[in-house]
């Protein structure tokens, strides 16, 4: 019997979240709606210009791990932090969520990663990320026994930015498949897809990755098309299973010739879209590892995404398990 339902691997980042208007983005040359990689100097500059901010442990895959745990799933996480204040915050927060996390912090330079997230009145988030210690993640941080004992190992496409992380991911894929487990990835954002399109397609077509998560823009970018139906057809041909989110239009789950549309969860107010895709993946993977139907997996994903976008920050402040029970999903 597997010890973990889901192992996630990602950039261990502390999110620093503040509200701003669109003029602030323009004045500071911030690309709206994207994850912009920045250096230490730019990180200090943007931090000095931020308004009142909320600090919270984040990182795409970390958010997904926390979400699965919130549903009641058994989760583990690989990610690199430094021996500093933000590293301590990240370690405390992810363990407090019930996630197994034993990647050892090493030294203070480079420091723990941080992402300055500016949320505009429309709820869109623009991320400015200094990767710091994340770039140190490599094959030596892979805990083989954890990979072997996880039903699904999930990683974020953002990990294709730090080069040694690729080696760690490929090692995890080897171990997972040798033990009859599955590999999953999220495409992360359309700019990330633009940087690594050929490599992402190879991961899918080679069978290195079994399950793919994307949003509509990422799927269109992956196949360099404006035809969403064509993108769905192609992604279904390139991987075993794909879940493509479409914001207020819900999600499409595709497996071979099978297509399942899942409507979005009705919300009262859009506050902050940070973590929406991460939490969709959490709900979906929780359902998937519990043997639920693909439709139910999609509903659990939409429920979690709908909850997190009604609050500030990427990790739900309420019980996803209770919400799922109230909705009759578990």
Automatic annotation (TrEMBL):
Keyword DNA damage on entry: no
Record-level Gene Ontology MF annotations: kinase activity
Keyword Kinase: yes
Record Gene3D superfamilies: 3.40.1190.20
Domain Carbohydrate kinase PfkB, first and last residues per copy: 56-316
Annotated keywords: Kinase, Transferase
InterPro entries membership: Carb_kinase_PfkB-like, Carboh/pur_kinase_PfkB_CS, PfkB_dom, Ribokinase-like
Pfam families listed in its UniProt record: PfkB (PF00294)
Similarity remark: Belongs to the carbohydrate kinase PfkB family.
Name of the protein this chain belongs to: Adenosine kinase
Source organism per UniProt: Metarhizobium album
